[in-house]
């Protein structure tokens, strides 16, 4: 796996209009995706995960949304201000996305074959007959039996797991270099979830496709991801190697997410949940955004905004003032004060 990033998100800020105001949904996101890597982005609903992925695809609806600042660098080129015509050459061809709900992403009026053939012919110059052959090969690649028959069926005739496999096949139709999967296993039963994850891992290994996996399920991240980004209220609060973060989380929010995962060995009657909710855009409090829900909060957290601290393990960063109490000021990238 190359250490060179294929996709870089730099200081990304995205806002949405509400009345006369623009409210920030993503506020200063930075991360790299390396070639051949599977990167997980986790966080509760409302943390900015999907908005970040839509920005990386050039799909922020305008109005009401807009990218205020930042860069989206793909293969050395900044895509932020590309005209829609240029975006269409990249979207689906170089960067593809698997959306959260396959039933609403697939057109119910057209057969699976029609939609797959269209996806292939939109970005290539192959004939309709060759596009159909490629569609059959793609369906077989994602583990769909009787692929020729499936081409003639409509989305409502397929199960949730089969529809999700079709979405993956469609996303892989032009052999993209980056695949963004937004909650690809939501609403699927556990067995199908495992099959979809195994399929994505297999595609990554066979085609060297870089994958961004957006999820709220830490079990999914532990299964297939190499690095993890934890988001909260539009910001990255912790990032680093999956093993490091799962074994030794440093941000109270990450600790809370891990504590919320059900433990089969535990005899507790009630599952743990982080108190409170993610602040809505426009209601973000002064100071640390997690302070109101944090069990380790102190005065500085409520008055000042923490930046990302670099920790001892390479690539491990955390947005928390607790590390100033441990004498790590010299490693800090700069606290806003």
What does this structure look like?
By secondary structure, this protein is of the alpha/beta class. Helix content is 31%, strand content 23%. The chain has an eight-stranded mixed sheet, sandwiched between helices. The longest helix has 18 residues, at 190-207. It starts with a strand and ends in a 19-residue tail after the last strand.
Topology, element by element:
Layout: E1 5-18, E2 21-34, E3 38-42, H1 49-56, E4 65-74, E5 77-78, H2 84-90, E6 95-98, H3 102-105, H4 112-123, H5 128-141, H6 147-150, H7 160-171, E7 178-182, H8 190-207, E8 210-215, H9 218-224, E9 227-232, E10 235-241, H10 242-247, H11 252-259, H12 299-303, E11 309-310, E12 317-318
Parallel strand pairs: 3-8, 3-9, 6-7, 7-8
Antiparallel strand pairs: 1-2, 1-4, 4-5, 9-10, 10-12, 11-12
Helix pairs in contact: 4-5, 4-7, 5-7, 7-8
Secondary structure tally: strands: 12
Order of helices and strands: EEEHEEHEHHHHHEHEHEEHHHEE
* CA(first)-CA(last) distance: 40 Å
* Integer average pLDDT: 86
Beta-strand share of residues: 15-25%
Taking Cα atoms only, what radius of gyration do you get, to the nearest Å? 21 Å
Low-confidence stretches: 327-337
Structural class designation: alpha/beta
Largest sheet, in brief, is: 8 strands, mixed
Helical percentage: 25-40%
- Spatial strand order of the main sheet: 6-7-8-3-9-10-12-11
Morphology: globular
Individual helix count: 12
């Amino acid at each position: 796996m190359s250490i060179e990033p294929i996709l870089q998100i730099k200081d990304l800020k995205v806002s949405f209009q509400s009345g006369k105001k623009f409210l920030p949904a993503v506020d200063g996101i930075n991360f790299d995706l390396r070639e051949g890597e599977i990167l997980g982005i986790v966080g509760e609903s409302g943390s900015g995960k999907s908005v970040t992925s839509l920005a990386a695809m050039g799909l922020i609806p305008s109005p009401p949304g807009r990218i205020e600042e930042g860069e989206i660098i793909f293969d050395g080129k900044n895509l932020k201000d590309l005209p829609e015509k240029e975006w269409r050459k990249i979207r689906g061809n170089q960067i593809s996305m698997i959306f959260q709900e396959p039933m609403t992403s697939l057109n119910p009026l057209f057969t699976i074959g029609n939609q797959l053939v269209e996806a292939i012919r939109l970005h290539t110059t192959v004939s309709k007959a060759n596009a159909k052959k490629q569609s059959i090969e793609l369906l077989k690649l994602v583990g769909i039996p009787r692929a020729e028959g499936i081409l003639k069926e409509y989305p409502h005739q397929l199960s949730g797991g089969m529809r999700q496999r079709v979405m993956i096949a469609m996303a892989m139709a032009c052999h993209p270099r980056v695949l963004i999967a937004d909650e690809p296993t939501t609403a699927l039963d556990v067995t199908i979830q495992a099959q979809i994850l195994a399929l994505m891992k297999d595609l990554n290994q066979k085609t060297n496709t870089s994958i961004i996996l957006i999820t709220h399920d830490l079990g999914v991240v532990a299964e297939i991801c190499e690095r993890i980004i934890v988001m909260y209220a539009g910001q990255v609060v912790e990032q680093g190697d999956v093993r490091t973060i799962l074994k030794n989380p440093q941000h109270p929010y990450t600790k809370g997410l891990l504590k919320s995962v059900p433990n089969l060995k535990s005899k507790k009657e009630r599952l743990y949940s982080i108190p409170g909710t993610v602040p809505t855009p426009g209601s973000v409090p002064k100071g640390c955004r997690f302070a109101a829900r944090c069990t380790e909060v102190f005065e500085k957290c409520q008055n000042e905004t923490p930046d990302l601290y670099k920790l001892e393990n390479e690539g491990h960063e955390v947005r928390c003032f607790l590390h100033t109490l441990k004498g790590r000021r010299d490693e800090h990238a700069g606290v806003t004060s």
